Amino acid sequence: MTTSVKPPTWFWAVSVIALLWNLVGVFNYLNQAYNQQAILETLDQAQREAFEGIPAWATAAFAIAVFSGTLACIGLLMRKKWARPLFIISLLAAVAQFIHWLFISNAVEAFGPSTYTMPIIILVIGLYLISFSGKGIQKGWLK
Fold first, then answer.
1. Average pLDDT, integer, range 64-85
2. pLDDT tens column, 27-37
3. Which residue, 14, 31, 5, is CA-closest to 87?
4. Is 121 exposed, middle or buried (0-12, 13-18, 19+ CB in 10 A)?
5. How far apart are CA 82 and CA 4, in angstroms?
6. How far apart are CA 65 and CA 100, in angstroms?
7. Keywords assigned by UniProt (predicted)?
8. pLDDT tens, 106-127?
9. How much helix, strand and coil, in percent to the nearest 5, is found in the chain?
10. DSSP secondary structure, 101-135, as one string
């Protein structure tokens, strides 16, 4: 007989919020991938050059980050421990994307110092979700 440790209510709240957060990322990726012309029309010349200069590998990293993060959140809601490795993949892919955006491209010059804000937020949330899923495994909430 196997016993299952029931997660607390806040586990479910955090998992749903994390899923919504990652779905926003999926929406942003799909918008960037399929609505480029509309985005370009809102940018000045320097911003446009930064946006148009995003290489395929950075776009792929963006896709991997948001889709693996979303799948990881679904794993949390299903109480599966495979959520944690997916959160790790998601964060590593996001970091790869940010390395290009912040340090290789001219995005910081084009968009200003606020360009660092979202990557920092994503890094903090990504590290938290890795820790959160690890705690879920440790507590027996994830199997």
1. 98
2. 999 999 999 88
3. 14
4. exposed
5. 17
6. 14
7. Membrane, Transmembrane, Transmembrane helix
8. 899 999 999 999 999 999 999 9
9. 80, 0, 20
10. IIIISSHHHHH-GGGGHHHHHHHHHHHHHHHHHHH
